[in-house]
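Data availability (excerpt). The following record was deposited with the supplementary files.
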Amino acid sequence: MMMIWLVLLSLFCKSTQEENSQEHGYLNCGPQNVTLLHSGQMILLWEDQPSCSAVRDVLIYELVVFRAGQQVNYDEVAVTPDQIESTHYRIWTSFLDLEGASNSVRLRSRYNNHTSPWKEQTFPGKQTLKVPEIFPKDKWFMVGSTVTFYCILPSTEAFSTMYLNTGEQPSTTKINNQTYALTVYLNRASKNTCDHVKCETKTNNNNGACVYIGYPPHYRDLQCETRDLKSVECQWTVRGDTDLPFKEPKAPQLLGSPCLMLSKGRCSQKVEKVDVGERNWTLTAQNEFGMVELSDTADLSKRVHMFAPNGVKVSTVNARSVTLQWNLAKPQYNNLNITCQVRMSFGEISIIGIGLNSTVLNDLIPNWTYNATLRCGSTQHFWKWSEWSKKVFFRTYGEVPDALDVWMHMEGNHTKIIWKMPQAKQSHGHIEHYEVTWRKTTENHNQNSTKVAFNKQSLSLSLTRTKEYIVTVTARNINGSSPPSTITIPSLNPAGHRVKTSRIIGSNGGFNFSWSASPAASCGYIVDWCPTSGNHTEDWLKLPPNETYAKVFSRNFTDGRRYSLSLYACTQGAPLLLERREGYVTEKSIKEGLFKSMKGKQQDSNFEVSWDLISLAEQTAFIQGYVLYCSDNNNSVISFSTDDPAATSLKARNLKMGFYKFTMKAQTAVGECGATFITAILNSPTDNLIGAVLIPLLTIFGLLSLTIMLCFRHWACIKQKVFPPIPKPMLTSMGEHGCHLLHVDQCHHSEVSVT
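Predicted structure:
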């Protein structure tokens, strides 16, 4: 037991001696061989005293910088035990030219609250100046920095003011008779040039220094990936709105090594392995204003951004399919499970495969020109699509035309067979002509046929209206005839065609046509439409049996024109008419002067206005009735109306005698329109009776007077004609049976002979 206590006492004594020895050592620890150098920067070198080897923890060195007698910087340098007994240094840029003022550095160590004595080194500046000088000059400062500028004057100059031309005027501090300091906060960047610090004296105002204020590289949003599975490629966003144009950033570094610039905001660097899992990628970039550091954490095996396929070509061209082939941009892609997307004129398709380099494109349009391009990406851990490849162009082979869309229009004794002109994607080549055949449904052999020019879309047939006919239309191109399109023409059945016509209101440039389902529509419905009057072209729409609504629209629709719409049920035989509608896409106000040959007639105290029947071509809106306005000389207006749109006359009743202006207007949904007027004077019934009696009497009196005057003037002639004188007999000596010529007075040169 005693031995144990002796051993413990021995160890305690030894430990106490070591602690005393260590404490005595680090109390004397401090800097030695302190040296201050200048080469555009301040460089402070020093070594540790030998006693510092006793330090077992971090040793702190304190540095204090004095410029022109004032403290301008304080810094601490941490030295770990493994760095002790090596040469230490500290480098920093002096804002004030070392030759422009005296600079001194004080250095001491600190450990466990024990500090060594200060060691000081001084670098004297110029002692004499000929002109005022400002420091620092031609330096680069980051926006947000606080900088002190010094103006050192010759002994012959007297200080006046000091300022920076950024608009701010902070106060100036006097350090001594020859040195003045201006401390400013730099809150904005220089604009394409430097800013000037001015120091004016009583006799000299041209003293200044140029400084540049800006930002570190404005980079953000770093994102790294691999494109060839052998290198990493990183890209970032570059904001150039605040970067100074006269100072571009230096080449960035990735993971501390130079990164090869590919373009602005993109660089690349080789890597040993891609499939090493997730790691941190750090990019640093700097310019004279400072440094920026960006980081991105990524597993490159999950970020494969392929290059675009090349060598795209087409082989094995058919009417409705082709084979598309290409080469992968990198051999490393051959082992990847790849998804490619092919974009063509009609849309996009996606395909998947390992080392994918070909595919067959189906369901193409015959005789059609296509262009195709594709892009690819890794299927597993899909990251990004590659760029699109170059386009390849090809044309499919031709084929017979598609079946035509055929319809009919019956008018009078003629049946018009109509079809829609095939579009380019339906004709599969140039249409040479159409062929129309027809026969009665009761006959199988007596078939008629005719050809129609390629630029026609209809054929009028004179068919027996009491019989049903089957009409077939085909289109032909260089590859052959299309599948036949057949329609059955119904026989004339007045009872079956008596369908009531109702109105339909247009909306949004067309008609919304809805109806109740019909059990007769075994193969769907047909809606056709055309203008109600005038020359027109029919159009139609075919719908499946489950549809009971159609949006009827045509680029040929015109506002203010009435259209007729018909609904047919598609059956196994002839189409069955179900409904008829009439309406306007948009009703328009009818022009003035609507009522042609308008005339009026007084009937006692009434006045009836009549007009010709208004044609449909003149009705740019539904006429709902008419209104007649009567205004007299006192501008008093009364009106009379009818709601019969088929009326051709309207009577104004119980009017007073006098002058009237009668204005006739049509009533429509867009207001009263089509104004036409006449004027008339209304007389009393007595005046009319007197006039009816006097006028005939005066006429008779005038005729009698004229007759009397004529008779008096020609009375002698009339008397001679009516009552000629009888001559007395006279005997002569010529003999018993002789003839004697009797001369009578002439009347208007006429002669009368008597024997």
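Summary of structural features: The domain at 24-123 is CATH 2.60.40.10 (Immunoglobulin-like).
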